[in-house]
Amino acid sequence: MAATLGGDPTAYGHLVRRHAALAKRMAVLWGAASEADDVVQDAFVQAYAALPRFRAGAEFRPWLLTIVRNLTRNAQRARGRRSAREAFVAIDDVVADIEDSALDTVRRDRLLSGVRRLPEDLREVVACRYLLELSEAETATTLGIPAGTVKSRLHRALARLREEVGDE
Q: What's the confidence (pLDDT) of residue 2?
């Protein structure tokens, strides 16, 4: 990050390569669907333009993901509501891309269905922590909420999912 802030375009290219896949997963999870690539590209362009305002010592990943989240929301507002079916297919694609799934297909489908039914605030923290594998601190920064709120929302979300999916 120091090299990027020093004006090295090669260093920024490294940041792009390192975070592009995660940024795309986030855009898809937040509802960008077919516009995910455009949202991610715009996010990297905006992040580059905003580098002079980047707070020294801050982490790049949550800062970038906050930009991705905001651009995804703007894209959704611009095009209006899209079908829930498209959103669910996109979420399934992202989850299918995540390696190390120990869940069998039926249990995974039940879990995804439960995640889809969560209220948006709970679904966002679950997506950040478990689908995007962000830390609690990164989740808090990305969503713009206190770390304690992340913990309480995760607790509520997981309790709801346990009720629906069970611990079989």
A: 77
Residue 31 has which token pair? 């509802």
**CB atoms near residue 75 (< 10 Å):** 19
| Full-model pTM | 0.63
Q: CA 168 to CA 165: how far, in whole Å? A: 8
Reported for 106-113, long-range contacts at CB under 8 A and 24+ positions apart, including other chains, are: 107/165, 107/168, 110/164, 110/165, 111/161, 111/165, 112/88, 113/164
CA-CA distance, 154 to 125, in Å (whole number)? Answer: 6
Average pLDDT, stretch 135-157? 92
The pLDDT of residue 104: 64
Could you write out the DSSP letters of every residue in 1-34?
-HHHHTT-HHHHHHHHHHHHHHHHHHHHHTT-GG
